[in-house]
Amino acid sequence: SQQGEEDPQALSIQEGENATMNCSYKTSINNLQWYRQNSGRGLVHLILIRSNEREKHSGRLRVTLDTSKKSSSLLITASRAADTASYFCATRTSYDKVIFGPGTSLSVIP
Amino acid sequence: KAGVTQTPRYLIKTRGQQVTLSCSPISGHRSVSWYQQTPGQGLQFLFEYFSETQRNKGNFPGRFSGRQFSNSRSEMNVSTLELGDSALYLCASSLQGIEAFFGQGTRLTVV
């Protein structure tokens, strides 16, 4: 089974709205990362949050990490049509393996 | 600086054949990881190399193998191809296995 599980699987919002995606994982982690993928192309690294951090910001992105609940959330504020993509969380476990979740497909409608 | 380069971008092979995919990491990056992406299974970790040594391996059969050269370039090989091996194969490089930079992938179709 997947280490990371994103929720929801698909999300459709209007341009300008905020988008929130959640990721849950099962084992201890060293860090958690979020990636974006456009139309089956390569993944683009968005943000990394370490296991001892609780929140991190990067531009319109805000990531939170709750290690007690083994979950993370990615918030994209003021969404744009160009944000339409699939978003994946990836965890690096204490055994140093990187495991990706199944992803959330985000559609931003202009 | 140049990004991660994967070659070829597209490949069509017949069942039973073997295939070799190549990945050139970002200059200075010594860690290279490989992933298989399919609609049904999502992104699955294949293996990770650091300084020519395999550090980690995912749950794939022995038909999937890889190696890393002294210049950090990496290749992965799939022997005795099966229809289910059709996928997007992604390579990622990183300085110390933390933030990974991905190539555009090789789209393999097995017919």
| Overall residue-averaged pLDDT value of chain B | 93
Taken in chain order, the helices and strands of chain A follow as: EEEEEEEEEEE
Identify the biggest protein-protein contact and residues per side: A-B, 22 and 25 residues
Alpha-beta classification of chain A: mainly beta
How big is the Rg of chain A? 13 Å
Tell me the fraction of residues in β-strands of chain A, as a range. Answer: over 45%
Strand content of chain B: over 45%
Helix content of chain B: under 10%
> SSE order of chain B in H/E notation?
EEEEEEEEEEE
Query: What oligomeric state do these chains adopt?
Result: heterodimer
Low-confidence stretches of chain B: none
Poorly predicted ranges of chain A: none
Q: Supply the number of helical segments of chain A.
A: 0
Question: N- to C-terminal separation of chain A?
Answer: 36 Å
Largest sheet of chain A: 6 strands, mixed
CA radius of gyration of chain B: 13 Å
Sheet bearing the most strands of chain B, described?
7 strands, mixed
Could you report the average pLDDT of chain A, rounded to the nearest whole number? 89
For the termini of chain B, the CA-CA separation is 37 Å
